From TrEMBL:
Organism of derivation: Sedimenticola thiotaurini
Lineage: Bacteria, Pseudomonadati, Pseudomonadota, Gammaproteobacteria, Chromatiales
Name of the featured protein: Phosphoribosylglycinamide formyltransferase
GO biological process: 'de novo' IMP biosynthetic process
Function as written in the Swiss-Prot or TrEMBL entry: Catalyzes the transfer of a formyl group from 10-formyltetrahydrofolate to 5-phospho-ribosyl-glycinamide (GAR), producing 5-phospho-ribosyl-N-formylglycinamide (FGAR) and tetrahydrofolate.
CDD domains: FMT_core_GART (cd08645)
Binding site for N(1)-(5-phospho-beta-D-ribosyl)glycinamide: 17-19
Taxonomic superkingdom: Bacteria
Pathway recorded for this protein: Purine metabolism; IMP biosynthesis via de novo pathway; N(2)-formyl-N(1)-(5-phospho-D-ribosyl)glycinamide from N(1)-(5-phospho-D-ribosyl)glycinamide (10-formyl THF route): step 1/1
Active site, UniProt feature: 113 (proton donor)
UniProt EC number: 2.1.2.2
Gene Ontology CC terms: cytosol
Catalytic activity: N(1)-(5-phospho-beta-D-ribosyl)glycinamide + (6R)-10-formyltetrahydrofolate = N(2)-formyl-N(1)-(5-phospho-beta-D-ribosyl)glycinamide + (6S)-5,6,7,8-tetrahydrofolate + H(+)
Length: 222
């Protein structure tokens, strides 16, 4: 597959970038994407080092250099648009995005969230699932809208909560599955299988009535 046939993407990170690494690894195999840049708002984000090691342009745009969220997001849009991506992928980008940013990339902005949305939007999802006594937790890939963690959900993976789980063990189990479902959802977009038609998600030409649900350790690359 030529570079022209690959989906151009830009990935935004704030931390370690393990989901970024999953995408890099998948792209090195057969995921049909071209990662044109990795951008972070934090100088200490290890995701930038992951990008450099993969010979991907790594760009820092420090949010503390800007007086407010709106001015930062305008600068971020300008930087992203320099790379002309068809899809912007949030991989642990820990900032609440302004409506102007979200609307600029409407239906082209993807996120992964560590819960079975609409449950547990926001932070501390694993601890909240444990405190609620949930037997099943998980992760969701969704399009980003102005509503926090509220966009249409494409794909979810259900992860069992074990009796002896604490926040760290549950988070680790969920993260292994994030590394599988995020490249899979991106693959569906890159291959043209997943489309947005008048706000409705369609997979293989059929409208999704809800997210595709996968079970723990049953995720494939297909």
């Amino acid at each position: 597959m030529t570079e022209q046939q690959k989906l151009p993407i830009v990935v935004l990170v704030s931390g370690s970038g393990s989901n970024l690494q999953a995408i890099i690894d998948a792209a090195a195999q057969d995921l049909p994407v071209e990662i044109r840049a990795v951008i972070s708002n934090r100088a200490d984000a290890y995701g930038l080092e992951r990008a450099k090691r993969a010979a991907i342009p790594a760009r820092l745009l420090d949010h503390t250099d800007y007086p407010d969220r709106e001015s930062y997001d305008r600068a971020l849009m300008a930087l992203i648009d320099d790379y002309s991506p068809a899809l912007v992928v949030l991989a642990g980008f820990m900032r609440i995005l302004t409506p102007g940013f979200v609307n600029h990339y409407k239906e082209r902005l993807l996120n992964i969230h560590p819960s079975l949305l609409p449950k547990y939007r926001g932070l501390h999802t694993h601890q909240r699932a444990l405190e609620a006594g949930d037997p099943v937790h998980g992760a969701s890939v969704h399009l980003v809208t102005e509503e926090l963690d509220g966009g249409p959900v494409i794909l979810q993976v259900r992860v069992p909560v074990e009796p002896d789980d604490d926040e760290s063990t549950l988070a680790a189990r969920v993260l292994t599955q994030e590394h599988l479902i995020y490249p899979l959802a991106i693959r569906w977009i890159a291959e043209g299988r997943l489309r947005v038609n008048d706000g409705t998600l369609e997979l293989d030409g059929q409208a999704l009535q809800g997210p595709v649900i996968m079970e723990f350790n049953q995720v494939t690359n297909g």
